[in-house]
Structure formats: structure tokens, C-alpha cells
Amino acid sequence: MILSVFICLVLTGCNEPAQIVDCGFYFDTYVQIHVYGEDKQYLKECLEICESCDKLYSAHDPDSLLYKLNHGESSDYSALYPLIKTSKDYNDLTGGAVNPAIGAVSLLWDFSDKDNPSFPGSGNIKDALIHTDPSSIILKDNNVSLTDPEAKIDLGFIAKGAVSELIRDHLIEKGVKSALINLGGNIVVIGSKPGGEAFTVGIKYPFSGDVIVTVEVCDAAVVTSGIYERNFVYNDHFYHHILDPETGFPVENELLSVTIVSSDPTKADALSTACMVMGMEKGLEFIENTDDAEALFIDNHYNIYTTSGFPKYEYQ
What does pLDDT average to over the chain? Predict the structure, then answer.
């Protein structure tokens, strides 16, 4: 559910090897893989990873393994075990700011059509909240089950990060030294650009198509969660897709977006959502005390705040 919003500025010098690029549509978003001077076969393999993961983690596709788990079908769910376990670990780490069992609520919301929004109703949300206890997710013998037949798992806050990590690891295993992976705005870079320059990633100005700042990174993930891409207005009230696990409604605080930089793409994805739920003060404190994670926060007055170790950035 997270739509991280970045524009990648990948500049190729005249002496640099040519990029090869491939793209596809998975996880309800566009995927782009940029690799410098390598075999195009690697890109095909990356998109195959996306396709296979989409069939694992989609909460909407009736053919996906997660959908079958959510709807009580008997099957071997060991392929889901690692990511669901990780998602529960982040639920514990963040004090419930991200909750893989939120599916009973999150699947009531539909942000796909701003022109014809569908509000699920306060009563429906209240009833669904009863079925969002993460303890209903049982991890045992490398398999997954749900003790509550009405519970549903939604891995939207972490899945793209995990998939981008798989792609990164695959490319590194193949010997790729320089690449950029873009899963709908979840950015992961391998190494630096040929010649040794860092990759430049633009962080979007909320509710605009412009870039507000750029940050230079090597061997890192840069992931943003924001309230400005998937949303709608219903009865003059603004609703967005980042839900508070306690209320089932979109979070209401001072934040427009949070960007996480980490060497761990899965961590970056999960923590960007968690900090949006926590709010500015708690989110800043949390990241300051978290290893291998730095954050940039944009508040509702377009002020920028960063953790002490955030990479150098430039206003545009």
C-alpha cells in the first residue's frame, strides 16, 4: 500500500558504460531496473522475481498465496513464512505502528479511483478492527496460519522493500557492480555510478510533481511514505492510504511524508510507514535510536527535519 514517491536522476557521462533498462507492472505499480553495461538477461530475471513475488504477497489477487491464506484455503504457506515473520518483528519493534494483521480494515479501503471514492463507513471499520490482532497470526514449523477466520494479512507496508532486496541480492550474486532498482518509487542502488559518482535521488515535493530535495547515495535504499499519492476526498474530508492500526482510519498528524535511507531495503520500507504513523516527535526519536536508518520528515508546512546522520541533501 505504500507508494513511495521519488524521481530518480540517473545521469550518464559520455565515458560511462551504457545503461540497460527494463520495466514491468507489478504490485499495482511500475517497476524499472537500470543496470550499467551488463547482460540484459539479468533484467529479465529481475522481472521474473517481481512476477513470482506478486503471486505470493498480493492481498487482492485471488490467485496469490496470501489471498488464499486470508480466505481460509488449505495449502502450504511456507513461502510466506519469512516475510510474515519479518512483518511481525517490525510490529513488535515499532510498538504496533505497522501491523501485518491490519488487512481486515485496510482491504475495506479503496484508493484506486479518486473520482468515485468509496468510504467504508465507521461502523464497518469498527467491526473489522476486532479482527486485527497480530497474535492471530501463528508462525509454527515454518508455516503460517490464522486463528481468527475473519483476520486478514496485508503486507503492503513491507513487500516492495523485501522484493527490491531480493532483486538487489540477485544482481550482486550475478556480479553486477552498478545498478538502480525502482519499485514504484522504492529506490535501491547497488554501488555507485560508473566513474565512482553517487546516485542522485530526488525526494518529491508533497502534492506536486516537483522535487524538493535531492540526496546522493551509494549502496543504499531510499524509501518514502507520503499521504499525497493515494487518497480521495469524501464529504469534504481528505482520506489517504496510511492507516492508523489503532483506529483503522488514515493517520492525522503533522506529517506529509517520511523518507528513510538504509542499507536494508526491507527496513527502509517498513520504517517509512511506521514513522508516518508515529508522527514527527516519536518518529525522529525512534530513528535516532535505530541502527542503519536515517530519516527526512516533511511536515504540513513543508518544513524539513532530519535525523543527525541523514546524508547531505540539496534543495531544488
Answer: 92
Beta bridge partners of 203: 6, 213
Cβ within 8 Å of residue 289, ≥6 positions away:
none
DSSP state letters, 82-143: HHHHHHHHHHHHTTTSS-GGGHHHHTT-B-S-SSS-B---HHHHHHHHTT--GGGEEEETTE
| Residue 149, CB-side half-sphere exposure with 13 Å CA sphere | 3
3-state helix, strand and coil shares in percent for the chain, rounded to the nearest 5: 30, 30, 40
Q: How far apart are CA 196 and CA 81, in angstroms?
A: 38
Q: 34-86, pLDDT tens digit by residue?
A: 998 767 788 999 999 999 999 999 999 999 999 999 999 999 999 999 999 99
Q: In whole angstroms, give the CA distance from residue 85 to residue 139.
A: 7
The mean per-residue pLDDT over the stretch 219-226 comes to 98
pLDDT value at residue 40: 79
User: What pLDDT, on the 0 to 100 scale, is given for residue 286?
Assistant: 98
- Is the predicted pLDDT of residue 268 greater than 60, yes or no? yes
Q: Kindly state the DSSP code that residue 18 receives in the 8-state scheme.
A: P
Q: What angle do CA 262, 28, 119 make, to 5 degrees?
A: 105
192-219 in b/e form (b: 16+ CB < 10 A) is bbbeeebbbbbbbbbeeeebbbbbbbee
The pTM of the full predicted model, rounded to 2 decimals, is: 0.93
Which domains does the chain show, CATH number per domain? 6-53+158-315 (3.10.520.10), 59-146 (1.10.3980.10)
Query: What pLDDT digit, counting tens, does each position of 72-117 carry?
Result: 999 999 999 999 999 999 999 999 999 999 999 999 999 988 888 8
Can you tell me which residue has the cell 560508473?
A: 194
Measured distance CA(90)–CA(189) in Å, rounded: 23
What's the rounded Cα separation, in Å, for the pair 30 and 215? 22
> Could you tell me the CA-to-CA distances from 259 to 66, 286, 293, 310 in Å, in that order?
28, 14, 10, 10
